[in-house]
Amino acid sequence: MHHHPSLDLSQIKAFIFDVDGVLTDGSLLALESGEQVRSFNIKDGFAIRHAINKGYKVAIISGRQEEGVRKRLLSLDVTDIFLGIPDKKVVFADYLQKYGLTAEQIAYMGDDVPDLEVMLQCGVAACPEDAVSDVVSVANYIAAKPGGKGAARELIELVMKTQSRW
Question: 3-class DSSP state for residue 46?
Fold first, then answer.
């Protein structure tokens, strides 16, 4: 785990996660039905639900559209689920407005080029250890763990512990 010395975690009120490569390891199992199955990490799931129970907002913005992903996230009490989003910054701006949040209050974790524009606006721009180089270069928090293996948990736990709310 390494992060920027000046990283201010005290302001964070909401977490936004990409799905593929962040909440999953980025691999897809393509079934004959055409459904694409992903594996999610149970420790990430616990942390997401815990954060919501403690009053944090959690949103998901993904470029891909898969109903299995929505069902998994709903089971974790996530209600702001944006799937099939080609341009994440539009949804991001709407999300801030909806809840009266500022970009500085958001911790965003992404792993690939579609995440860059939003990451550059956020108070905490985080990525898994195995994110693409363009993302690593703008991140101010790089998890010790790769996507789908507890990277999201690491970010949530760090922020909540810093705020004495874990």
Answer: helix
* DSSP per-residue codes, 64-99: S--HHHHHHHHHTT--EEE-S-S-HHHHHHHHHHHH
DSSP 20: T
Per-residue pLDDT of the chain (166 residues; tens, 9 = 90+): 566 656 889 999 999 999 999 999 999 898 898 888 899 999 999 999 999 999 999 999 999 988 889 999 999 999 999 999 999 999 999 999 999 999 999 999 999 999 999 999 999 999 999 999 999 999 999 999 999 999 999 999 999 999 999 9
**Residue partners of 4: CB distance under 8 A and separation at least 6:** 140, 141
